[in-house]
Specification:
Length: about 210
Amino acid sequence: MTNPWTDSLRKLLWPLIYCLAVLLSYWLAPALHLRPDNMGLMPRNWLHLSGIATSAFAHGNAEHLLSNVLSLLFSSWLLHTFYSRLAFPVILVSWLGSGILMFLFARTGVFHIGASAAIYSVVFFLLTGGLLGGHTSLRTVAIITILHYGSLVWGFLPLDNGVSWDGHLSGAAIGILLGIFFRKQYRKAYATPKPDWYREEDNEEDEYRKFNS
């Protein structure tokens, strides 16, 4: 029998690795002579196309870094816990897909940095899964996500030039699309199993049954 504490710690491993990668990139960037504008994404500027992959690892300051790391840790832990088979493709597409969408549609002339676009994608995948999943566990995860990340809605508003609100919109769009695309998989994973004695043909209408009673 699986120990629930061991299982929870195991599912925390990958989220910790994601966060460690972001932290290491921030600490090592000065030694490697990498600045946020080197790693950041500037939409429709082909010289900064690599920012699609690297912008999530670039942060302007320690406060920005800590905020994103904590959000990434919790959201990716929920993802690995309740959508374990889909976690890696969702993380990968959230990271690169939001970067591609930002490159194509976000404001140009400014560098977009930080992991928040990928975080928005994961959060909105969890919300979409709760809406479409049809299972109490997934709805509960969506409620927890709303309670924990409800303030993220302010990130969609262009209130601060230093906030990549269009990056947040890109991430949210990718998360919703992922939630719709993978809906059959997580519905199947959480479908109530039929009992061993159940046979499909037993439930078919038998037009002669009434004469055999």
